[in-house]
Structures are given as structure tokens and as C-alpha cells.
Design brief:
Blueprint: H1 2-11, E1 15-21, H2 28-38, E2 44-50, H3 56-66, E3 70-74, H4 84-94, E4 99-102, H5 113-122, E5 127-131, H6 144-161, E6 176-179, H7 195-202, E7 208-212, H8 227-243, H9 249-274, H10 279-302, H11 310-336, H12 342-360, H13 362-365, H14 378-389, E8 393-397, E9 403-408, H15 415-428, E10 432-435, E11 450-457, E12 467-474, H16 480-493, H17 519-522, E13 533-536
Parallel strand pairs: 1-2, 1-4, 2-3, 5-7
Antiparallel strand pairs: 4-6, 5-6, 8-9, 8-12, 10-11, 10-13, 11-12
Length: 538
């Protein structure tokens, strides 16, 4: 086991730095010198994703031969669709470190800033951003006043549109660092190269810290900024609004409200002026139809990520709408007798009603996506996973493979096997399946009960090397479908799991009426382990 630990540990550096490059031949050597000097006390790797047509690829290939910490992925021209954005995403997938950082290769990002970013991560930050707009930072390296103006305006725009982007003073920075475990499961679909914005909006509950960045001037090569990149940036904003449920919620709420106002005024004009309906009847029909319109679109668009709260949401929305409608009706009836046109009466009343409705729903409209749910105890957490997978035993294991808590009845699987599988899962960051082969029995049968084990990395902040192990002895071993179902349940439950500083449950004991037991009590006969098949699944 010590050999496994040593080999795996050597393959997994503490930090991976992803550097997309395109025609940066003159910058590579000084960049590498700066990184090696700044990170001389850090176990690191450099992942270059190269789209160059100059001598950059040859220089990087030579450096990779001389230094095994330098890894290079050179993309042929036909594989460069998406440009810098897809290069960064590829680099994130290739990174193997516990931490992963992204920076430019044009010397505008000082390598020594990484040390401050590492310090911020050690203090508890999930995501660390090197910000040009923090006190002590500078954007002087941007070429010209116009570039500085555009950069600041773009940053203010995304902070205005996305509440999640306000977690950083520089949400469009190209220099950031986070734990690699936070990137697993994130489906990056960037348009342009603003990967940080994609991460902030798609993972809105990260603890974000900024460190000052002295943005340097480019000394060689050409800037990649262009009008095309600006258009891609606007497309990226639209894609995050349209494709991410619950993002830009307040703007969606306002857009739906304006469309409902237009519908109300159109029906009021048609009924009251064209068809000659009584003013109150025209208003009532217009109000009811506009409310139904607003409610259906808010449910589909504004609160699309809160479908599980449909009925509480419906009650709250209807209550606030009726209150606003009452105020709107009072103002409308007061204006009907005036010389103003009927549609203008309706407009003034509706504006007041929208103000009341907006005030009552302000907090709801500003609500973060996928709000945190109530925490659950470790016993409920393990029980949920066990029921979904059909496991007879579900255990939480610490960094040393020792069982912290369990649910269900103990199986006869050997402790050492469980620890071995847990170690593979925790170091590799991937699920592990182990199945007892029928062939180990003296007489193979199709109806024998076989042991199988599934081990999943927990990947909670502060508990990155904790794992969940599931065991069962049945005629059917764990399958890929069982793994997929259990992983989905783990994703749903993981944000709700409350753990103490030692990995034990913060609120309840492990199994109802029973304390968590040590590994020797959890497993059965230590001598009954037979050969098995193990597979790591990505």
C-alpha cells in the first residue's frame, strides 16, 4: 500500500497552472523562469494548451523534455474551434493537481501573485481571483485609455446583470485559482474566453476571495482582444442568462413584468376603447390575463431553478399579486373619471401595481440560484445513499480509510480491502467499483450471492480525501447504473451534509441509536478477503 501511495502521490502535484498559448514564442522562456522562481517551494505542474503557428510549440516541446513538470497539449488547427475558451477548458480537464490555476502566458500576469492566491486558499477560499480593481491592484497594463474603459464597463455590466458575479471585484479576470474538486461536474460552455464568469455563475455558492493584481504591459506578441472577442463576450452574457436557470433573476423578473404590462394595456385598449366594454370589466379581463401570463413565464423563466418549491412559490406570488392588484384597482377607479384616456389610466395604475409587486417580491427576485437546503445528519445522508444503491452497508471513511460513521448492518468484507479501495478513490478523485468474481468459488453458480463494493470521493471543502463506501452481498453486483444513480444522489445531498471538524456528524450520531464504530467493528472476518476485480470509472 505504501508503494501505491507513493506512486499516486507523485502523480498528483499540489498545484496545476493552466496556460493557453497562441504565438507567444518570445514570452515562454521568461514566463517559465518567473514561474519556477515563484513556485520553487510548491509541488506544481504547468499545463500548456498551445494553438500556436510560430515557434511556441517547439520551445514548449523542448522545455517539456527538460522539465517533467511542464506538460504540453498542442492542438492542430482543425481542433481549435472556440479559441482560447476551449483551450482553457481542455487545460482544466488535463490538470491533475489538488489546486488548479489559470493565467495568461503573455507576462501580463506576474507569477509571484500565485503565492498570495495560495495563501488565500489556505485561509478557506474556494476560489481566488487576482483582481485589477482591488486596492493595491492596477490595470495600467491595459493598452490605452479606451481598453481600460472597455474593461471597466464590461466588469460593471456583468456585476449588474449577475448577482453571482458580485462575489469578485474583477469577475472577468483571466487569472484565478480554485480547488480542482470544485470543477468536477461543471459543464463549461463558454462563448469567448471569460471562464471565470462561467464558473461564478454556474457555481454560485463558492466562497470567493480577491488578491491584488498588478496587471503588466505586454512586452512581446500581439493582444488577442478584438471586436470579434467583444461580440463573443456579449453572446456569452446572453448564453448565461438564457441557458442557466435562475441566473440574472431580477432582470428576467423585470422583463416578464414589462411584457405583462404591455399585454394588460393592449387588452384594456381593445376591450375598453375598441369594443366599448365598461372600464371596470375591461380592466378585470386585462388584469387576470396579464397575471396568468406573468405567472406562467416567471415560473418557466425567472424561477426555473425553484421548481421543487412550486407551491410555496405559487402561494407567495399570488398573495403579492393580489395585494398589488388591489392597489392598482383603487388607483384605476380613481382615474377613470378624469379626462385622461383609458389606456393612460391603466398605465398609471399598473405602474403603481408593479412597484408594489416588485417591493413585495424584491428578496425573492434577488435570490441566489439553487439556495442552500437545510442540513441533514450523517445518518440520513448515508441512509439515502444506501437506499438509492440498494447497499446493505454505507460507511463514511476518513483520510486513513477508517470508518467515521455507518448505516445498515455490517458486512463480512475485510477492512483492508475497504481501505485499499478508499485510498484509490481518494487519491485518484474517481469512483471505484470492486466485485467478487464467481470464479473464485469451488463450484461457480449463477445464483450465488457475491460481494461488491462501491467507493465514492466525498469532495467537501476540508474533507477532500474523505470517501463514502457502499457494500452489498446479493446475486447482482453493483453496476454502472447503480453507480450513476448513487452519484446523482450524492450530488444532491452533498451540499446539505453537516460535518464537524473531525469528520463526524455535526448534529446526529451515525446510525440511529448507535455511535460510529471503528473499522475493526464495522467489518467482519479480516481473513475472508478473496481476489476481485477493480475498475476506476471516470
Amino acid at each position: 500500500m505504501s508503494e501505491l501511495r507513493a506512486s499516486v502521490g507523485a502523480a498528483l502535484p499540489e498545484l496545476s497552472v493552466v496556460l493557453p498559448t497562441r504565438n507567444e514564442a518570445d514570452n515562454i522562456e521568461p514566463l517559465l523562469a518567473g514561474l519556477r522562481d515563484a513556485l520553487n517551494a510548491v509541488d506544481f505542474e504547468l499545463v500548456f494548451v498551445d494553438d500556436s503557428d510560430d515557434q511556441t510549440a517547439q520551445i514548449l516541446a523542448r522545455e517539456a523534455i527538460l522539465d517533467p513538470r511542464v506538460r504540453v497539449v498542442h492542438r492542430a488547427p482543425e481542433l481549435r474551434e472556440g479559441g482560447l475558451s476551449t483551450a482553457v477548458v481542455l487545460g482544466l480537464h488535463e490538470a491533475r493537481g489538488r489546486l488548479v490555476g489559470v493565467m495568461d502566458a503573455d507576462l501580463q500576469h506576474p507569477p509571484e501573485t500565485i503565492l498570495a492566491m495560495l495563501a488565500a486558499e489556505r485561509e478557506g477560499a474556494d476560489l481566488v481571483v487576482a483582481s485589477r480593481y482591488l486596492p493595491g491592484g492596477s490595470r495600467a497594463g491595459l493598452a490605452g485609455g479606451f481598453r481600460q474603459f472597455v474593461s471597466r464597463a464590461a466588469s460593471l455590466l456583468v456585476r449588474a446583470v449577475f448577482i453571482e458575479a458580485r462575489a469578485s471585484s474583477d469577475p472577468l479576470a483571466g487569472f484565478f485559482l480554485c480547488r480542482s474538486s470544485l470543477l468536477r461536474g461543471v459543464e463549461f460552455r463558454p462563448v469567448g474566453f471569460k471562464i471565470l464568469l462561467e464558473l461564478l455563475v454556474c457555481s454560485p455558492h463558492l466562497k470567493v476571495a480577491d488578491v491584488p493584481l498588478q496587471f503588466q504591459s505586454r512586452t512581446a506578441g500581439e493582444s488577442k482582444a478584438s471586436t470579434t472577442q467583444g461580440l463573443l463576450f456579449l453572446r456569452h452574457i446572453w448564453s448565461l442568462i438564457y441557458d442557466v436557470p435562475g441566473s440574472a433573476r431580477i432582470w428576467k423578473f423585470s422583463a416578464v413584468g414589462i411584457s405583462g404590462l404591455a399585454l394588460l394595456l393592449a387588452i384594456l385598449e381593445l376591450g375598453g376603447t375598441v369594443l366599448g366594454w365598461p372600464a371596470l370589466a375591461a380592466w378585470a379581463v386585462a388584469f387576470v390575463l396579464s397575471v396568468l401570463w406573468n405567472f406562467s413565464w416567471n415560473l418557466r423563466l425567472t424561477f426555473a431553478d425553484l421548481r421543487r418549491e412550486r407551491y410555496p412559490l405559487m402561494r407567495r406570488y399570488v398573495s403579492s399579486t393580489l395585494t398589488a392588484g388591489g392597489a392598482q384597482l383603487i388607483v384605476f377607479l380613481g382615474l377613470v373619471g378624469t379626462p385622461l384616456p383609458l389606456v393612460l389610466d391603466g398605465l398609471l395604475a399598473a405602474v403603481l401595481g408593479m412597484g408594489v409587486n416588485g417591493a413585495l417580491n424584491w428578496q425573492l427576485a434577488r435570490r441566489h440560484r439553487r439556495p442552500s437546503q437545510l442540513a441533514i445528519g450523517i445518518d440520513h445522508f448515508l441512509a439515502h445513499l444506501g437506499k438509492v444503491s440498494g447497499a446493505q452497508l454505507t460507511a463514511l471513511l476518513d483520510q486513513n480509510g477508517r470508518e467515521v460513521a455507518f448505516w445498515g448492518r455490517p458486512s463480512a468484507e475485510a477492512t483492508e480491502l475497504l481501505r485499499s479501495l478508499a485510498e484509490r478513490a481518494s487519491y485518484g478523485g474517481l469512483p471505484v467499483l470492486w466485485t467478487e468474481p464467481p470464479s473464485r468459488r469451488p463450484q461457480a453458480r449463477t445464483n450465488v450471492e457475491l460481494a461488491s463494493i462501491m467507493v465514492l470521493p466525498l469532495e467537501l471543502p476540508g474533507f477532500e480525501r474523505f470517501t463514502v463506501a457502499l457494500q452489498r452481498r446479493t446475486r447482482s453486483a453493483f453496476s454502472s447504473d447503480d453507480l450513476e444513480a448513487t452519484m446523482r444522489q450524492l450530488e444532491r445531498l452533498r451540499p446539505r451534509l453537516g460535518l464537524g471538524s473531525d469528520g463526524a456528524a455535526a448534529d446526529q450520531p451515525a446510525a440511529p441509536g448507535r455511535p460510529a464504530q471503528p473499522a475493526a467493528e464495522l467489518s467482519g472476518n479480516r481473513g475472508q478477503r478473496g481476489p476481485g476485480t477493480t475498475s476506476r470509472l471516470g
